Amino acid sequence: MFTINVNVPPGALQDILNRLEAIMATMQEVLDLVRQSNTVGDSVVTLLNETKAKLDAALAAIPNVPPEVQAQIDQAFDELTAQKAELESAITANTPAET
Predict the structure, then answer these.
(1) Of 5, 25, 34, 41, whose Cβ has the fewest other Cβ atoms within 10 Å?
(2) Residue 31 dihedral angles phi and psi, to the nearest 5°
(3) In the Cβ-directed half-sphere of 25, how many Cα atoms lie within 13 Å?
(4) What are φ and ψ of residue 12, in 5° steps?
């Protein structure tokens, strides 16, 4: 067995503890933000899915949707679907695994 002697300036250990506490608080803030983002992301995905379903149902009741109107609707939902995929990917990539 051997002994290591280290000279630590007065207050240095407390300074280290204070810094660790600040880092842990910051990490908790980040984790809280990720969890909030996950909830917001889930809400956005649900909103998009429900909006599309309702619009599809409404359009099904119209016998002849003009092709230019249908093209605009399709384009809008293609763009929303792409944004949804990006949002889901970002949330998945930045959400820590539950432990």
Answers:
(1) 5
(2) -60, -40
(3) 6
(4) -65, -40
Listing DSSP states for the chain in one string gives: ---------TTHHHHHHHHHHHHHHHHHHHHHHHHHHHHHHHHHHHHHHHHHHHHHHHHHTSS---HHHHHHHHHHHHHHHHHHHHHHHHHHHHSPPP-
pTM flag (> 0.85): no
Domain ranges in the chain are 41-94
What tens digit of pLDDT does each residue of 78-87 get? 887 888 778 7
Distance from C-alpha of 78 to C-alpha of 65, rounded to nearest angstrom: 18
CA–CA distances in Å: residue 45 to residues 4, 5, 6, 73: 58, 59, 56, 18
Dig out the tokens for 27 from the structure.
Answer: 């990490």
pLDDT for the residue 19: 79
Q: In angstroms, rounded to a whole number, what is the distance separating the alpha carbons of residues 52 and 74?
A: 10
